[in-house]
Amino acid sequence: MVKRLLMYSLISVVSYFAGVFCYLGALRLFYDQGMGSDMNLIWAWIGFPYFFFVVPLYAGIILFLRAIRRYSLILQTIVFLIPGFLAMGAAYFPYGLYLLMNPISKEASLFYCCYTATAILFSCGSWYTEKWLKP
Fold first, then answer.
1. d(Cα 98, Cα 120) in Å, to the nearest integer?
2. Are 18 and 11 in contact (CB under 8 A)?
3. Residue 126 in contact with residue 57, Cβ under 8 Å?
4. What are the φ/ψ torsions at residue 129 (nearest 5 degrees)?
5. How far is the C-alpha of 106 from the C-alpha of 31, rounded, in Å?
6. DSSP letters for the chain
7. Cβ atoms 87, 53 nearer than 8 A
8. What span, in angstroms and rounded, lies between the C-alpha atoms of 61 and 31?
9. Which of 46, 61, 66, 110 has a 20 to 30 A CA-CA distance from 116?
10. How many other C-beta atoms are found inside a 10 Å radius of the C-beta of residue 2?
11. Whole-angstrom Cα distance, residue 61 to residue 70?
């Protein structure tokens, strides 16, 4: 149980950093811009919704998929994408609601990259953890 908790904590932190770096990479690649002085805001805009909304939902999704015995990597990854897109609404409140109303905006595409990366990495990490630490 302790190993599993430590592994999921590590997966959460690593996937968070991967999401932030994908956000910054997409900003640089697609828009040829740097972050500048808003870097502290990005850590909070992505971090709070991720750790207090997305990670608990990921845990619930894993438990639900295990309960209905439909635990596959592809299904889990697809289902993990949904909370990430919903977290965009909380990304930088109250402006996050604008991202949900205008899903094609420049800011929304950056958050799509971020939360897609976190979903894929969290899914692969949790899949590996479940296979490695069979209950």
1. 25
2. no
3. no
4. -65, -45
5. 9
6. -HHHHHHHHHHHHHHHHHHHHHHHHHHHHHH----GGGHHHHHHHHHHHIIIIIHHHHHHHHHHHHHTT---HHHHHHHHHHHHHHHGGGTTTTTHHHHHH-TTSHHHHHHHHHHHHHHHHHHHHHHHHHHHS--
7. yes
8. 34
9. 66
10. 6
11. 11
3-state secondary structure 92-122: CCCCHHHHHHCCCCHHHHHHHHHHHHHHHHH
Q: How many residues does the chain have?
A: 135
- CA torsion sign, 128 to 77 to 88 to 111? positive
Amino acid code (one letter) for 49: P
Q: How far apart are the first and last CA of the chain?
A: 9
Average pLDDT across each block of 10 residues of the chain; the chain has 135 residues. List them in order.
Answer: 88 94 90 75 81 90 86 87 74 56 70 90 90 75
- pTM for this one? 0.82
